[in-house]
Amino acid sequence: MPFKKANHYFRLCQASLRHDMAKRIMYSILPAVSSPEQTQMTGGIIDYKSLEYAIEGYKDIIKYGVDSCVSELKNVPPERTRTYYDAMYKKDAGDYLGAIEICIDDFNNKEWDRGYGGEAWGKIAETLRDIILLGEEIEKTPPGQKKITTMQQMVIALNIFDGLSHNSDSILTNLVEKENLNKKEKERINNLIKIMDAKELANPIHVYKEIENTLKETGDIHKFKDWVTKLRSHPDYHKKSDNIYEKFQIRAKKLFIKPNRVFNLYLDKLKTKNSDYLFNADDIVAILSTYQFDIKSIIAEMERQYSDSEGINKIKNIDKNYDILLSSIVNIRDKMYRFKSVRDEDEDKLSELINQFINASMKLIYFIQSIF
Fold first, then answer.
1. CB 166 within 8 A of CB 121
2. What is the C-alpha separation between 44 and 52, in angstroms, rounded?
3. Residue 165: beta bridge partners?
């Protein structure tokens, strides 16, 4: 039945992005169980086959990445609609390089409304262009040192792409949705995010333990058979690792990138002490409250997974301190409202309240940054 086949294809495609990333991560941790002599003998490659496995899936990154960039062009102003259709035509014709060149030009050189296109998407499109060109080079280059070098460059480009974000989220979230027929699969996106976070753990053996089950799901783990044996023989593999707080730091830091950027924008406006100071103060409170909600969501998820971990108590203390600091900011904002309501003309008093609000906000920002 076509419907059943479509569902089967859906599951395979959904898994591929996550599994391909796991193979790239696996390749990156091989030096942890390699001797200097072995690395020197292979010219720093570690393992040619593992290098091949690490770049598997780059064509999917190109396909869904270009599709995502072209979709973002839908948000151009009406007078530039032709740009979107030109890019879409090239993309649908399989001219991914032509389509991405159009995207790069528009993202980097044209005006965009805040929250759409612009520099962040320009960086995504430029990295995709690098991947496209490296892919073309790999396809036409015979086996040898030149091909090995190009494959190594491809791994670097793919790792850079994995970490890119646009104006509101990770680019890989867009790719997951494109690969899944534009159906938002929150659980699967979250699983991909966990893989992305795992590669930032300090201990390579802990990184392996985080991706091990993902590699098992499709049998990819057998491609790294000898390396798996070495990793599992490492003393750290059998130790119980309480790295909950480290995982929390990684996730909290990534989630803070966007709110921090927007916070600074409104803080600069507030410092001018213009007539919109209450709106700017409200925006800052909303940003910090939303980020606190994100922190609480991370804690709740980790509590479900690691209820007996010492790291959980440390994270809970962070949440309590955040509450105290945010309450102080809200109280000052409320004083500003009361000041406005009685039409007090005392400019010095207003200036003092705004300065108190700014200082309290910066105190919370410094506290957040200390978490990382």
1. yes
2. 14
3. 170
How many CB atoms sit inside 10 A of residue 146's CB? 12
Q: Answer whether 251's CB lies under 8 Å from 282's CB.
A: no
* Residue 173, number of CB atoms within 10 A of its CB: 17
How is the chain split into domains, by residue range? 2-237, 244-371
Q: Is residue 46 within 8 Å of residue 31, measured between CB atoms?
A: yes
Q: Which of 316, 256, 315 is nearest to 287 (CA)?
A: 256
Amino acid, single-letter form, for residue 117: G
pLDDT at 181: 61
Helices (H), 141-167: 145-162
C-beta neighbour count of 91 within 10 angstroms: 22
Contact between 296 and 319 (Cβ < 8 Å): yes
pLDDT digits (tens, 9 = 90+) for 69-85: 999 999 888 888 899 99
The overall pTM is greater than 0.85: no
- As given in the structure block, the two tokens for residue 57 are 């899936």
DSSP states of 58-115: HHHHHHHHHHHHHHHGGGS-GGGHHHHHHHHHHHHTT-HHHHHHHHHHHHHHS---TT
